């Protein structure tokens, strides 16, 4: 797990594939960011960088909670939802 300091910008990335391992573009995609207390801090639409690859640059608030934060990606393709979670720690 990577450590960050309040005020830093973190790049959150996700890759989505079908069951055969082929990169796919989602019909819709959303990223929710939760702080170390589990409080929802942001709901955003990420940027597509390539087929099946998305990112979002998030600025950790200067008064952000220390501890383990979570990003929860939700991609929908047709009627199938895919969830991917990423974690990082804010140490100071």
Short note summarizing the structure:
The chain has 92 residues and is mainly β.
What does this structure look like?
With about 90 residues, the chain is mainly β. It has a single domain (about 5-90), classed as Immunoglobulin-like (Sandwich). Helices cover about 0% and strands about 60% of the residues. It is built from no helices and 8 strands. It has strands at about 5, 10-15, 30-35, 40-45, 45-50, 55-60, 65-75, 80-90. The strands form 2 sheets. Strands 1-8-7-3-4 form a 5-stranded mixed beta sheet, with no helix packed on it. Strands 2-6-5 form a 3-stranded antiparallel beta sheet, with no helix packed on it. A hairpin with a 2-residue loop joins strand 5 (about 45-50) and strand 6 (about 55-60).
CATH topology: Immunoglobulin-like
CATH level-4 homologous superfamily:
Immunoglobulins
Oligomeric description of these chains: single chain
CATH class: Mainly Beta
Instruction: Provide the number of structural domains.
Output: 1
Query: Could you tell me the radius of gyration in angstroms?
Result: 14 Å
Number of helices: 0
Please give the largest β-sheet.
Answer: 5 strands, mixed
Strand content: over 45%
Shape: elongated
Q: Kindly name the structural category.
A: mainly beta
What proportion of the residues is helical, as a percent range?
under 10%
What average pLDDT do the residues reach?
Answer: 96
CATH architecture: Sandwich
Strand order of the largest sheet: 1-8-7-3-4
């Amino acid at each position: 797990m990577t450590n960050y300091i309040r005020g830093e910008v973190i790049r959150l990335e996700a890759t989505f594939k079908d069951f055969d391992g082929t990169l796919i573009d989602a019909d819709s995609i959303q990223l929710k960011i939760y702080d170390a207390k589990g409080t929802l801090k942001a709901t955003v639409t990420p940027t597509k960088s390539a087929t099946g690859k998305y990112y979002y640059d998030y600025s950790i608030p200067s008064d952000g909670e220390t501890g383990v934060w979570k990003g929860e990606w939700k991609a929908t393709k047709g009627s199938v939802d895919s969830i991917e979670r990423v974690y990082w720690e804010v140490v100071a």
